[in-house]
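Response to reviewer comment R2.3. The reviewers asked that we include at least one raw input/output pair. We reproduce the pair for DnaJ (Hsp40) homolog, subfamily C, member 16 like here without editing.
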Amino acid sequence: SSVGRAAHSLASAPEFDPYKVLGVSRHASQAEIKKVYKRLVREWHPDKNKSPGAEDMFIKITKSYEILSNEERRSNYDRFGQMDENQNFARAPQGFRHFHDSFYFDESFFHFPRTSRDFTDSKHHLHYNQYITEVLPASFKRPYLIKITSEWCFTCIHIEPVWKDTVLELEPLGVGIGVVDIGYERQLANHLGAHRTPSILGLINGKVTFFHYAVVREHLRQFVESLLPQKLVEKVTDNSYLEFLNSWHEENKPRVLMFDVASNIPLLYKLTAFAFKDYVQFGYVDMGLTQTSKVVQRFNINTYAPTMLLFKENTDKPADVIQARGMKKQIIDEFVSNNRFLLVPRLVNQKLFDELCPVKQFHRRRKYCVLLVTGEGEQFVSVNEAFFDFASSNTKEVVRFAYVYQRQQQPLCDTLLKKEDTTPPQVVLLERRSATGRVLYRTVTDGWNGSDDDKHRLHEQLEILQRDPSYLTHDAMLPELNNEFASMFLIQWINAAYDYLSQFYFDLLYSNWREMMPVLSLIFSALFILFGTVIIQAFSESGEDKPTKQKATDPPKTAESSPGQESTSSRPPKKNFVEVTELTDITYMSNLVRLKPGHINVVLILTDASKQVLLRKFAKEVYSFSGSQTLHYSFLNVDKHSQWMDSLMESAPDARPSDCLDEEEDFTSNKSDYTGHVLALNGHKKYFCIFRPVFTGEEAECSRWSEEDAATAGPSKASRSRSSSRQKATTLEIHHKLDRLGLWMERLMEGTLPRHYVPAWPGLDTITPQK
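Raw output as returned:
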């Protein structure tokens, strides 16, 4: 190599003088030599100095320091000009040859930081932000093995070969690898509790554990295995395999049986089980035992190759199988990931609900969830089995089946069944529309008894839903699901205390006091908080608790109540109210005609009689969209500006609805009623979209579906003689005019509503009646 040739030329060069290389006198002390050496090494290190002679100069500096830092070598050089205490001073050629052989080892010794970082550790180097944002969350899916090193750690070279072999073995199995340079990442090293080099530590579930044994490949492998939970993979025999497979119902997870000829469970299987521990339960069958012959024969397993069987609800036949002589991590991960849910899983927590029924994304294919609300008693067994049979024969990608126990998820079931006032068992078709919990849903008519008629009716309604998304007529804000498998607080605290005490004993055993201080601090803090809470509760009076009152915030420009009080969203927009302004002679130009490009003004048409009711309903419907910076909200009073809507409709004839006239009245005597209409006005591009209110019963008997929303009732014409009855409409009827506004707003955000263009906006000041 180039370094070897440089070392040879250095050894044979007669002018080489370590004192001149370092620039120190022959009487310099060890402290002076060390200080100069550190300065020169930083200056001439090949990673930092790119000049052509930097590498040769770096070799001279390191070799000079090696000679002068050792008193015996320094004495030999001063007396004989030799650089190795083992040289035969009478035979110079032999001595130089031995020096060259000795220095060849030093090549890797002194260049370890550069070569190892460039070719081995560079892709594994960790930074503090990377550790916090990527490695720490990923440690809940796989363990990490992290090495703490530094650029001038001369003892790190001794563990380097073992470290490289270990990385080559464990990384393909799924173990995360990290390297922290303590010289560059002091913050991360302090965060991990590492204060010396070299150090090796393990990270799993956010917890750091230090390696304290001899750095041997087998010890490092055993250390990684010890980080994993003990009962991650269950050993299965002829006597226990049926119990293992049939326990899918209690744990709500598929089961994987791994067959192999090995007394100890392979590390690859353990790492896979840890990665999918939240979804799948794993079992291991040692085919070399006589106690497993029946289960091997039962599923006709080939004993010459490792095999994995995945079972769901049907324990007699596996849902999927893989078999290969060389099981690879990528193959196993894909196999398990594609089958991580049961065919009809039970909703046991919010995380599972989010994955089974994802939120609808704009411009993507819709996905619907068919949910069975049922019970746990024996009377529900046949009903549940019939639902499972139906799901087995209707495996479509756009439909996911699930069920929920009413007793376990009472708030969810009450929300879905309250409008229909029904009791389980019921089947609900739903589509999630926002991450905050908003859904569109519809209950299958006549309940669910599991009969053939029920299956046929459900199949028909699913077909209708896939053709017409507006078939879901109800909307609701779902509460967060209860975690049915969450352990009690006391059990969680005991487990955490046990982990800390185990770590305390382990560190005390090895006297790592600096590393043990964070654990001691956490233990005493937890004890202080626990006993402090008990003492405070003991001396507190029961009458001091006062119910907190929700503070209502009124909009600055309207007198309507805050829609934030009515919203059940756990993550509302930034403001807890919707700012709605009135379109008048003063605000008309700024809110419409001169509106910024890309901005839209959503205008509600109302009257004096319906103002309070419609504004309150309008604010509630548009509240979830109030976080958008491009949407503005206004209202127009047609009692004050009665001709503006007629002028707008004359400018855009394609927006005018078909007339619906009373047979006894003349066409000219009819006047359009625009109460409850909503306009989305783009002032810059001069177009608008129109929402026509839901038919409530006080208008004429003819209505039609609007072209903008297939789920929204069409407009109707009311005669002037019926205006008095319209004004006498109940608050409930007027309130329901805007029931479908939320769906219309979603289509507005998607950009799928028809647009009606106008040559110019009608003036508001010229048609305002004088009063």
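Residues 513-539 form the longest helix (27 residues). The mean pLDDT is 77. Further pairs are available on request from the corresponding author.
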